[in-house]
TrEMBL record:
InterPro entries attached to this UniProt entry: AAA_16, P-loop_NTPase, TPR-like_helical_dom_sf, TPR_rpt
Pfam family, one: AAA_16
Domain of life, source organism: Bacteria
The entry's keywords: ATP-binding, Nucleotide-binding
Keyword Zinc assigned: no
Protein name: AAA family ATPase
Span of domain Orc1-like AAA ATPase: 12-175
UniProt xrefs under SUPFAM superfamilies: P-loop containing nucleoside triphosphate hydrolases (SSF52540), TPR-like (SSF48452)
Length: 889
């Protein structure tokens, strides 16, 4: 019997076909045009797959390259399943060397996720892998234009694919490709729904409706002949509710039974329709015999890559019997021949289910115990085929727990493979399932530790629970236990539980005797206390830290880390800058970061190295600071770490450029940091760092309205984060309020900054500059207090000893004076800031001196410096003075 695939599936879809045709024509018209995305949404059986097939036909007719993929309900746990189907066709056709050359740096980042290369030793950053996949499509789209991507049943797509799709949809303006996504409404996890909602945001969504009675009648007569009477046609529509797929299947049943399409037989349609779905389908399957039923069950367990040989092994049939079953199931329209052009597979495929509805019904009909057992057999078959634990993991997840030590081992191995390709959620599922087995007592704590590491980037709160549980049972000893404590404290930090992070490492350090492990924990404790913005630090902390650091020579990384923390603490307190730099230099090896203290090394974390770079930045060693910031940016780019780490790197590159006076370049880096930070989540310390520095940079540029708009959009206002942000956010917020004319609010904010700094002993006038701005704000209203503040600023600056600090203090003093004393102080400020690496401050001092001294040459030099910095407000001020004819009175 010939299988039925009538064009009737497109009845009443003229409008959708027209939209698709126009989108394809637009794609083909101009390769420089932006990309397009269409969403087809409809209930099961409403013709989404048929519309995608029509899209393929239209696109190929116009010479397009078409790649397609289909998600599966039983394949949701397979990471990157759908995106692999889409992109592998173009990549497997290349030689490995060709693919590496073509993809460049993205090969090692996205290649493992796509299954075209083995993963590296390190765990991959999920956001970096996502960015890599976006870049891969951009490159392939340029090569294979015009390119059309078709994704069917997106509501069942794995979360990693949906994350990529949402990210790619944001960049469609930059790449000429047409994406058509078919999905059902609902039926998806919360995270997946967010991604799909982002894909559809502000884009056309074609919501498919059921067939009308007229269309159902037309379809009936087109299939059964014009002699089908009206009552029969009406009953076809009634029993199928106008569902196009059910209508087509019902009419096929009518043909099979040779039922005459007249009113007298209309009553038989309901029974025929029930046999085509749900329990009726299962009953029809059973009528084909036990062997055919076992074959269908095995095919449903496999889900994809269905071959007669593989199904035979899983269903324990010989090959000849399996082939007969396959033919029987094809005749019954349960299975069909796999379409080799639709998508690439991990292995050759002979068969696929006619419709996902059938696959789901068959899978759900398998008795629970048997289904779990068959998944166990499937896992062994996949493992024996050499495809690895990760490929078998989706089957392992379904096996009934029974204290199987080997299963725990396989799941742990699968989790490691998932982490290596950037799929922490898939790793989490494996490890959670391993805990259900459960593991042997001697490995239970290790599984919990591994689970905590797997959830670290995506769910810090879960990490906290897992690691606490792991530390509360035997099995974690020595360095692994210390690693777990440090990781727990990092998770607490990222979850904004700073005080608990400090107590955690302090308590563990107290349990240990003197040695490298205790030194590491003490250093981490000092580090967390050092970046805490509250009042957690214990009395005498800085003194104890200084005493401990004085014994360190930098002979190992624990000592080097302690020296970095000590240098940062001294910088924040405003101690002598030369001594601070000498302390930090001792933490380096031949002027570079020591092995094991790199930006992508996990033992100490990014916070430590940022402390080092920031200390150099605020002690006028900007060359060293910028070298470290740029090294971080390169390291994260190369490693594909495109999440919070890369956002922080861009933020601190921006901070370095702001300190240098390269304001336009600083703004660009900070905006990129904010773009990345938006994907990570608002409210985190990295978000505050990017926002605070962007506001500060815009104020330096003279873009006050824009600075205010950024502050409003990104929530740059109290309450402030519990971690230290550089520069001080209260000081920056106070400066912003003064700039927009909200003087009293600005004064209040600066006074709050004063109190917060005093609690922590932070007296560095460069990064906590509240006193300088407050003195200027109070110059008229309270000149006595303003003068006192100016004296304090100068005293702290001279104690700190950098040219920038002293020059800035002299600028404040000059602003509060008049006559020749003001001129002399301004001249001294210029002299110091000329030797400073901070060119914006030098430019401002030049302009201020030129105004006070009525010096055209100094104004002109200040103008040139302001232009080179991108300080538009300062440029305008200098121009106004020059235009007013500045000169000797």
């Amino acid at each position: 019997m010939t299988e039925m695939r009538p064009p009737a599936a497109l009845w009443e879809r003229d409008e959708e076909v027209a939209v698709i045709t126009q989108a394809v024509d637009t794609l083909c018209a101009d390769r420089s045009s932006p990309g397009g995305l269409l969403v087809l949404q409809g209930e099961a059986g409403f013709g989404k797959t048929a519309l995608l097939a029509e899209t393929r036909r239209i696109a190929e007719q116009r010479g397009c390259t078409v790649w397609s993929a289909r998600a599966g309900e039983t394949l949701r746990s397979v990471p990157f399943n759908v995106v692999r189907q889409l992109l592998q066709p173009a990549l497997v056709s290349m030689l490995p060397e060709e693919a590496r050359e073509y993809l460049g740096d993205w090969y090692d980042i996205a290649g493992p996720a796509l299954g075209i290369t083995d993963p590296g030793e390190r765990y991959a950053d999920p956001q970096g892998v996502c960015e890599g996949l976006v870049a891969v499509v951009h490159r392939l789209a340029r090569r294979d234009w015009p390119l059309v991507l078709l994704i069917d049943d997106a509501h069942w797509a794995d979360q990693e694919t949906l994350r990529w799709l949402a990210s790619f949809a944001e960049r469609l303006a930059d790449v000429c490709v047409l994406v058509v996504v078919a999905r059902r409404p609902g039926g998806i996890s919360e995270a997946g729904a967010r991604y799909l909602d982002a894909v559809a945001a502000d884009r056309p969504v074609a919501v498919l409706s059921a067939l009308t009675p007229e269309a159902a009648a037309g379809l009936t007569r087109a299939t059964l002949g014009e002699n089908a009477d009206a009552a029969f046609c009406r009953e076809v529509w009634a029993v199928t509710d106008g569902n196009p797929y059910e209508t087509v299947e019902l009419l096929a049943k009518v043909q099979d039974t040779e039922l005459e399409p007249v009113e007298a037989h209309a009553g038989e349609l309901r029974d025929l329709n029930r046999s085509a779905r749900g329990g009726g389908l299962v009953a029809r399957l059973e009528q084909l015999g036990i062997d055919a039923t076992r074959f269908a069950w095995a095919a449903a367990i496999l889900g994809n890559d269905i071959t007669v040989d593989l199904v035979a092994r899983l269903s324990t049939l010989n090959v000849d019997a399996a082939a007969r079953c396959a033919e029987r199931l094809r005749s019954a329209r349960i299975l069909t021949v796999a379409d080799p052009s639709a998508r690439i597979r991990t292995a050759p495929a002979d068969l696929e289910f006619v419709n996902p509805l059938i696959a789901t019904a068959v899978y759900n009909s398998i008795p629970d115990a048997l289904r779990r057992a068959m998944h166990g057999i499937a896992a062994r078959i996949v493992t024996d085929s050499g495809r690895g634990a990760a490929a078998a993991a989706r089957h392992l997840l379904e096996v009934h727990p029974e204290d199987d030590e080997e299963l725990v081992r396989q799941l742990r191995e699968a989790a490691r493979e998932h982490l290596a390709v950037g799929a922490p959620d898939a790793a989490r599922r494996c490890l959670e399932r391993a805990l259900e087995e459960p593991p042997r007592p001697e490995v239970h704590a290790r599984v919990l530790y591994e689970l905590g590491c797997a959830t670290f980037l995506t769910a810090p709160a879960r990490t906290i629970g897992h690691l606490r549980a792991a530390l509360g049972m035997p099995g974690l000893d020595g360095d692994r236990r210390v690693d777990a404590v440090v990781r727990l404290s990092q998770a607490l930090l990222h979850n904004d539980q700073m005080e608990e992070a400090v107590r955690t490492v302090e308590a563990e350090a107290s349990r240990l005797g003197p040695g490298p492990a205790q030194m590491r924990l003490r250093t981490v404790q000092f580090m967390w206390e050092g970046i805490h913005a509250g009042e957690t630090a214990s009395p005498g902390r800085s003194e104890r830290l200084a005493e401990l650091a004085a014994t360190c020579t930098g002979r190992d990384n624990s000592e080097r880390a302690l020296l970095i923390v000590r240098g940062f603490d001294a910088m924040m307190r405003g101690e002598n800058a030369e001594e601070i730099v000498e302390i930090c230099d001792r933490a380096l090896v031949n002027g570079r970061l020591a092995p094991g203290l790199g930006w992508t090394d996990s033992e100490w974390g990014v916070e430590l190295l940022l402390m080092l770079a920031d200390t150099y930045a605020y002690t006028d060693r900007l060359d060293r600071a910028e070298s470290l910031y740029n090294e971080a940016l390169h390291a994260y780019d190369t490693a594909g770490w495109s999440g919070g780490h890369l956002a922080l790197a861009h933020a601190y590159v921006g901070l370095g450029r702001r300190r240098r006076g390269r304001l336009e370049a600083a703004e660009a880096a900070l905006r990129e940091s904010l773009r990345l930070a938006e994907h990570v989540g608002r409210g985190l310390p990295l978000y505050w760092t990017a926002t605070c520095n962007l506001v500060d940079t815009l104020l330096a540029r003279g873009h006050v309205d824009e600075a205010w708009e950024v502050a409003e959009r990104y929530g740059f206002a109290p309450p402030y984060p519990s971690t230290i942000v550089l520069p001080d956010p209260r000081s920056v917020r106070g400066r912003l309020l003064l700039a927009v004319g909200r003087v009293q609010e600005g004064v209040n904010e600066l006074e709050a900054a004063q109190k917060a700094a005093a609690v922590r002993g932070h007296h560095n006038p460069v990064h906590v500059f509240w006193a300088a701005d407050l003195a200027r704000a109070l110059a008229t209203e309270d000149p006595v207090r303003a003068a006192r503040l100016a004296v304090d600023v100068r005293r702290q600056a001279e104690r700190f000893g950098t040219d920038t600090a002293i020059g800035e203090a002299l600028r404040v003093a000059a602003a509060l004076e008049t006559g020749q004393r003001a001129v002399r102080l301004a001249a001294q400020a210029v002299a110091y800031l000329e030797s400073s690496p901070c060119q914006y401050e030098h430019a401002a001092a030049r302009v201020e001196y030129g105004i006070l001294a009525r010096s055209v040459p100094d104004l002109e030099r200040g103008l040139a410096l302001a232009r080179s910095c991108g300080a538009d407000g300062l440029v305008e001020r200098a121009r106004e003075e020059l235009g007013a004819g500045v000169g000797p009175r």
